[in-house]
Specification:
Blueprint: E1 2-8, E2 13-18, H1 24-35, E3 42-46, E4 49-51, H2 58-62, E5 75-81, H3 84-91, H4 95-111, H5 128-138, H6 144-157, H7 163-172, H8 178-193, H9 204-215, H10 221-234, H11 241-249, H12 256-271, H13 275-282, H14 290-307, H15 310-319, H16 325-340, H17 346-360, H18 364-379, H19 386-398, H20 407-421, H21 426-437, H22 444-459, H23 466-478, H24 485-498, H25 503-513, H26 519-532, H27 538-545, H28 553-566, H29 569-578
């Protein structure tokens, strides 16, 4: 039996009795159980001689002084705690060894200020977080995997705003490995997320913000993205104008992923009510580069609803006068989003601003976009209230003169109205009827879109206005004899949507379309007859059979398709014989 007294540098002692045949590793396990120092961190000395071989028995290591009976002398050992062995394990190429080293480091840092079962303090000369910092310093120059694993373990073990951990991570921001720099930036963001202003009494996080701002200029886009995301989490509740300005400056980054990360960071900060975030972005609206102004408007638009800032709202309205088309379009979309969310009294002002742009912008694309946005607002969830009334009146004002519109603007306006009409909007259907009834010189594509939308409107079960529905049906049917083949085909397709109740009104016109000069109209007419006519309808069969002897083979083919679709076999053969071969 070996009688041992272990001393640590704090002056504490531990008395142990072990067999001389037990290995040094077992002694270290017993010390770890009592004093909570993991075995890899223990360095034991006999006088000034270090004991290295963990596998050797104690009797061999301690020599004759260990004794073998109860009267033997007591052996005194000194314990020092060291990180070198742990860091060697973390550097190992073996994953199991690295895992063991990280586990030992976590235990050492977490229990460095604990007390043992007897109340004896286990002081190791530094706080747990300082151990992490020292370990990271020792790991400098190691592989990226080793250092990143240590950073990940430290992030899980340290408290928010820990100055030692923050300092250690700041030191890793200049590591040559990009992955290490990203991990360190993410770790700083995590440490600051839950930290309060009191946690930064020593200014550690303030220094970290400066280091993260510098990291925004890293050569690699991946690292710049990590820095932007970390700044969004690490920013204090007040002040920090310099980091915000650094973020806003990166709206002009050459990499799309970085720009997206910066936009997300600024939107998050503005959404948390930090007006200085909006102010930093507003400063970019005067940039000479239109792309930066465009991204600034994007951020302001996404953050305006959450921040509820009057300055942001005014900036969006001012951006409607920007010389760049893309900036004006982005400002329109942002104002429409604010109006749709009905954010305060500014919603009605936003609709008015969109309306003015729809009437006065020099670019067709901008005017058409404004009209489309008004249509969405008029038919959306907010369309029932005062906001919807303003949007509908603005649409009427914009579309008062179809003839004055460019082709692109007219088409997009009709498309927007069609979307409203399909939701049962009577007022939009009236506007489309006005277009079709005054269609001299009107764009063919716009008229076709209007016919399709009106047919959907009439066939919808949600339509309440019978008068508008009847007029729409008449206009669609009259378009079957339009001079333009595309319009006639669109009219045939529209009629087929109306259902069987229009069969009596349209059967002769559809029969005429079986002889149309355009093959697409003939095919559409045959399909419409098959869809609308009752099965074995005599008038439908007669209309088709009368054209079976037409001089044009294409007409005969369309008539045969219609006939075979409407009549059963036993009926259509008799009809064919009645009208000749």
């Amino acid at each position: 039996m070996v009688q041992l007294v272990v001393h640590n540098i704090g002056g504490d002692t531990l008395e142990l009795s072990l067999e001389s045949t037990q290995a040094l590793a077992e002694l270290k396990e017993e010390v770890a159980r009592r004093w909570h120092f993991p075995p890899p961190s223990q360095s034991l000395f006999l006088e000034s001689v270090p004991l290295h071989d963990d596998a050797s028995p104690l009797g061999a290591l301690l020599g004759d002084g260990s004794g073998s009976d109860s009267g033997a002398a007591v052996v005194s050992l000194t314990l020092l705690v060291s990180l070198e062995r742990i860091c060697d394990d973390i550097r190992s190429r073996l994953r199991s060894t690295r895992t063991g080293g990280l586990k030992a480091l976590s235990e050492l840092a977490a229990r460095s200020d604990c007390a043992d079962d007897n109340g004896a303090g286990c002081r190791c000369g530094g706080a747990g977080s300082a151990m992490w910092s020292n370990a990271l310093d020792l790991l400098r120059g190691a592989s990226s995997d080793s250092l990143c694993a240590a950073i990940e373990a430290m992030r899980a073990a340290t408290t928010p705003g820990d100055p030692f951990a923050v300092a250690a991570l700041v030191g890793c921001l200049d590591d040559p490995h990009a992955r290490t720099r990203c991990m360190a930036a993410e770790g700083l963001g995590d440490l600051a997320t839950q930290a309060s202003d009191a946690d930064d009494a020593g200014g550690a996080m303030t220094k970290a913000l400066g280091a993260l701002c510098a990291l925004l200029g890293d050569a690699l886009p991946l690292v710049r993205c990590a820095a932007a995301a970390a700044l969004a989490r690490a920013m204090p509740k007040r002040g920090a104008e310099d980091p915000l300005a650094a973020l806003a400056a990166r709206l002009g980054d050459s990499d799309a992923a970085v720009r997206k990360a910066v936009e997300a960071a600024l939107v998050k900060l503005a959404g948390e009510g930090r007006q200085n975030a909006i102010s930093a972005v507003l400063a970019r609206l005067t940039d000479d580069d239109a792309r930066i102004r465009h991204r600034a408007v994007t951020v302001i638009g996404r953050a305006a609803a959450a921040a509820d800032g009057a300055c942001a709202f005014q900036a969006l309205q001012d951006s409607l006068d920007d010389q760049d088309v893309a900036v004006r379009l982005e400002a329109l979309s942002a104002l429409a989003a604010i109006a749709a969310a009905q954010v305060g009294p500014g919603a009605e002002t936003a609709v008015a601003a969109i309306s003015r742009r729809a009437l006065s912008d020099d670019e067709d694309h901008v005017r058409a976009t404004a009209i489309a946005l008004l249509g969405e607002l008029a038919s959306g969830p907010c369309g029932e209230g005062a906001l919807g009334t303003i949007a509908r009146q603005a649409m009427r004002d914009c579309l008062a003169d179809f003839g004055a519109m460019s082709v692109d603007t007219l088409r997009r306006a009709v498309r927007a109205l069609g979307a409203v009409v399909r939701r049962g909007g009577d007022w939009a259907a009236e506007l489309l009827l006005g277009l079709l009834q005054a269609s001299d010189g009107c764009d063919v594509v716009a008229r076709c879109e209007a016919l399709s939308a009106l047919a959907d409107f009439v066939s919808s079960t949600a339509v309440d206005s019978v008068a508008v529905s009847n007029v729409a049906s008449s206009v669609v049917i009259s378009a079957l004899r339009d001079d333009d083949a595309c319009v006639r085909r669109a009219a045939v397709l529209a009629v087929s949507k109306l259902g069987g109740f229009v069969w009596e009104e349209t059967m002769y016109s559809l029969g005429e379309r079986l002889e149309d000069d355009d093959p697409r109209v003939r095919c559409a007419a045959a399909s419409a007859i098959a869809r609308l006519a009752p099965r074995n309808d005599e008038k439908a069969m007669a209309a088709a059979a009368a054209r079976l002897h037409h001089s044009d083979a294409c007409v005969r083919r369309a008539a045969a398709d219609a006939l075979t679709s409407v009549a059963d076999t036993e009926h259509w053969w008799g009809v064919v014989q009645a009208f000749g071969e």
